[in-house]
Structure formats: C-alpha cells, structure tokens
Amino acid sequence: MNTKKIQVLPSILSARMGHLAADCRRALEAGADGLHFDVMDGHFVANLTLGPDVLRALREELPDAYLHVHLMVDRPDFYAPRFIEAGADAVLVHIESPCDVPGTLRAIRAAGKKAGAVICPETPVGALADVADAGLLDEVLVMTVHPGFGGQKFLESGLPKFRELRRRWPALDLSVDGGINTETGALCAAAGANILGAGSFLYKAPDMAAAIAGMRRAAEAAAGTER
Ligand code: DX5
Ligand code: ZN
Fold it and tell me: CA-CA distance, 172 to 67, in Å (whole number)?
C-alpha cells in the first residue's frame, strides 16, 4: 500500500506565459502543493521553454511556493546549480542525460535541495539501480508521455514501473508526469505514485480548486490513504 501523502503539482507549461505569475498564484490558491516547472533546451527534447531567470522571477513573486524543477536538457550538470541558485526546491534530472548524472544528483543534495531522477517511457526502472542503491535519490519521476510537450495521451506502460519502484526502494517519493487527470492520477496512485504532476487537465479545468481536490481525493482513495 502507498502510505505517503498525495501531492498535486500543476505543470506551469500549460499556464498562460503572458500571465505566468498570476496563473501560478491561481494554482496555489486553488490548493496545489507546489508548481512543476518544465525546462527544455531544444536538444534533449524538441522544444524550448523556461530558463533560470524565469524561475528567479517566480521565486520573487511567490517566496513560499514549492518549486519542482524538471530538467529536460542535455547538460543538467551545468543547469542544476543555476536553477538552485534561482530558487528551486527540488531538481529532477533525466537518467538518460548524456552527462555525469550521479555527480549532478550529489551536487543537488549538497546544496540542500531535493534530488530526483526521471525516466522516459522507454527507460526501464533498472536504469536507476546505480543511483538509487547509492542513496543519491529522494524521488523518482516516471514519465507517462514522451517528454517535450503538454497535452499528450497517458501511457499505461508507466504503471508497472511504480509497483517495481515501490517494491525496490520503498522510501522514495514517486512522481508522475504526462497525461494526468483524475482517472489516470488514481491509477498511478494505486500503483504507488504519491506526487501527481498535471498540466493541461488542471489549467483547462473550469474550476481548478475542484479539479485539484477531486484529483487528490481519487488518488487518496486509490492509494488506500483516505482518512
Ligand atoms: C512534458 C512535461 C509535462 C507536461 C505535462 O514533457 O514534462 O510536465 O507539462 O502536461 P500534461 O499534464 O498536459 O500532459
Ligand atoms: Zn514535466
């Protein structure tokens, strides 16, 4: 059973970029536990998004927000320290990144921040064994779409990965990103996920507070943690 507290993190990739601070504040006021911040460099994925100066500006606007930074870049070793300096609370690095991933995770931890590894849909859980067994991880993020764009369809092939991760490393936080809504979030929570990232579903919802509450309730029930 998944007994960790369920967290809901809206992905601000789906926010209005011209009203980014307002849309971040709206998500927090609607009950979000923090914000998921997608960084893409045009190399690791075919899209370009947000840099450290945008994170710094958001940190200034939202001093208490929990900022969860997902690095989809070729050089997370270079960028992780810049996002930490700009105000990140958690930094998540793709295990597939062509650089020193263990060293990057150590640097995130040494800065006192939460360190996570991310796996793409085609990457098996076993690819995490070295860094997980070395105790370098606080969190694993399982991608349930191919990274790069919001609004894609949830890939069920991610579900068995949560069960394997929960069995092998029960203390880790497990997050999911891609195609998450009330139903798919509950499926992931039943399999062991405790942090739900969701972009288009939450930002397109007519009532974001109701959508967050509904997603949280369904996930808690599915995880057996409902009180
Ligand atoms: C995709 C990003 C996701 C994206 C999810 O590469 O990492 O965080 O915003 O968007 P939805 O929830 O619309 O699939
Ligand atoms: Zn993401």
Answer: 18
Map residue 141 onto helix, strand or coil.
Answer: strand
Q: Give the strand pairing for 7-10 and 35-40.
A: unpaired
Q: Which CATH architecture fits 7-223?
A: Alpha-Beta Barrel (3.20)
Residues forming the active site? 38, 177
Mean pLDDT for all residues in the chain:
97
- Predicted confidence (pLDDT) per residue in 179-215, tens digit: 999 999 999 999 999 999 999 999 999 999 999 999 9
Give the pLDDT band of residue 98 (cuts 50, 70, 90).
very high
CA proximity to 92, closest of 74, 104, 78 = 104
Give the torsion sign (CA, 66, 136, 170, 98): positive
The domain ranges of the chain are 7-223
**Token pair for residue 51?**
């840099």
Whole-model pTM: value is 0.97
Mutate to test the pocket of ligand 1, among 200, 201, 202, 208 (most ligand atoms within 8 A of CB): 200
CA–CA dist 134, 118 (Å, integer): 16
Q: What is the mean pLDDT of residues 71-94?
A: 98
